[in-house]
Amino acid sequence: MTVEFPPIDRDKDHLIRADYDSVRIADALLRSPHFTAAYANPGDYDVVFATSDTGDGRAWLLTLKDPAPSDDDMLAEPVLHEALAAAVLNHPDFVAATPDYPSDGDITIHTRDGQRYLGVIGIATDEDTALLKQPSPAVDVALAADKLLASDPSDSERATAELLNYIAATWDKQDLPLREHAQAVARTLRTQ
User: Fold this and answer.
1) Mean pLDDT (the chain, rounded)
2) How far is CA 115 from CA 31, 46, 112, 118, 121, in A?
3) pLDDT per residue over 97-145, tens digit each?
4) What is the DSSP string of 155-171?
5) Is it the case that residue 8 has pLDDT exceeding 50?
6) Is the pTM of this model over 0.85?
7) How many H-runs (helices) and E-runs (strands) does the chain carry?
8) How far apart, in whole angstroms, are the C-alpha atoms of residue 12 and residue 6?
9) Quick count: other Cβ atoms within 10 Å of Cβ 70?
10) SS3 helix, strand, coil % of the chain, rounded to 5?
11) CA nearest 179: which of 74, 36, 13, 30?
């Protein structure tokens, strides 16, 4: 007897979506004027970021861990933790982000689909900081589109390239599935 299971609906499975929480936090930081750069890999629990007031090239590292219970989530004064929490809350996939007090390096983050993390802030290593200097995915998508346009494209290839350029130009306004699809199309164009 063979049992067939229905396919996983990746948009509804919170365990699969949790692999992208660090990426969504990096995206939230990039939308905030207080952060100049942010980077995370899907499945990792680290987010590397730089603030607008750090002119010395130093970066920070936010590591997502299992949270500890906390009764008091207020800090005595505004600090980096509150700016981080505010940036995360501006992203539609998060419902709570609160600085933990008295701990001076943690924020508790809740996703819309029920995941909960303790974000521990520390100083990023030089290797982590180098990740911030990599070209953004939007630049990669635009580069693939421009290379296609420069190769005497057909009408359908030209339309694809123009769509990719539009997505790259409006990257911050696009949702994660569309960004991932644009990156996949760009990768396909590079291998042809």
Assistant:
1) 76
2) 22, 16, 7, 10, 19
3) 887 765 666 888 888 888 888 888 887 888 877 767 666 778 788 888 8
4) HHHHHHHHHHHHHHHTG
5) no
6) no
7) 7, 6
8) 13
9) 15
10) 40, 20, 40
11) 30
Query: Which residue, among 119, 99, 132, 130, has the nearest Cα to 46 in the 3D structure?
Result: 119
What is the three-class DSSP state of 136?
coil
What is the β-pairing status of strands 60-65 and 94-99?
Answer: unpaired
- What SS3 state is found at 14? helix
The single-letter DSSP state of residue 8 is P
- Determine the Cα–Cα distance for residues 3 and 178; give it in Å rounded to an integer: 33
Residue 80 near residue 92, CB atoms below 8 Å = no
- 45-56 pLDDT tens trace: 888 888 766 556
Give the span between the Cα atoms of 80 and 144, in whole angstroms: 36
Alpha carbons 126 and 58: distance in angstroms, whole number: 8
Mean pLDDT lowest for which of 19-28, 42-51, 73-82? 73-82
Q: What are phi and psi of 49, to 5 degrees?
A: -150, 160
